[in-house]
Amino acid sequence: MEKINVYEKLGTFNDFWSPKIIGEMNESYVKLVKLKGEFVWHLHENEDEMFMVIKGKMVIKLRTEDIVLNQGELFIIPRGVEHMPVAEDEVHVMLIEPKTTLNTGNIKNERTVENLEII
Fold first, then answer.
1. What is the pLDDT of residue 107?
2. Beta-bridge partner residues of 50
3. pLDDT of residue 82
4. How distant is the alpha carbon of residue 91 from its chain centre?
5. Which residue, 58, 29, 55, 44, is CA-closest to 118?
6. Which CATH superfamily is domain 6-118 in?
7. Using an 8 Å Cβ cutoff, are 16 and 36 in contact?
8. Which of 4, 7, 20, 61 is most buried, by CB atoms within 10 Å?
9. In this structure, are strands 28-38 and 20-25 parallel, antiparallel, or unpaired?
10. Tens digit of pLDDT for each residue in 22-77?
């Protein structure tokens, strides 16, 4: 057991769209990621996904609507729902998701991170 300072962990990396593991609980990872720009449309067939904005503002585009998330807000995307995260400016996000969750879901491309770094 150890205390984790989210802000210190965020200071250890600068790359975008590459989640880092900061902890685990049950069968889930707690991750931090920095976002900037548009991601890809994707879905997670077997996993729900939680985005919590630590710093900044982002949009989660759904096929039916856009969800604006400000600092301190979170949104849970149910499994099977297609979505695309967008961050006009740099945004810091905490993710809580099952260990099986691939960042690009059902899509594999240059942004897919299969081997997550633990920080």
1. 73
2. 76, 96
3. 95
4. 10
5. 29
6. Jelly Rolls (2.60.120.10)
7. yes
8. 20
9. antiparallel
10. 999 999 999 999 999 999 999 999 999 999 999 999 999 999 999 999 999 999 99
Identify whether the C-beta of residue 54 lies closer than 8 Å to the C-beta of residue 71: yes
Q: pTM value?
A: 0.88
* Region 86-113 average pLDDT: 84
User: Which pLDDT value is given to residue 58?
Assistant: 98
Rounded-to-integer distance, Cα 40 and Cα 27, Å = 25
Phi, psi of 110 (to 5 degrees): -65, -15
Please, where are the H alpha helices in the chain? 6-10
CA angle 96, 13, 28 (to 5 degrees): 15
Closest CA to 84 of 37, 19, 29, 21: 37
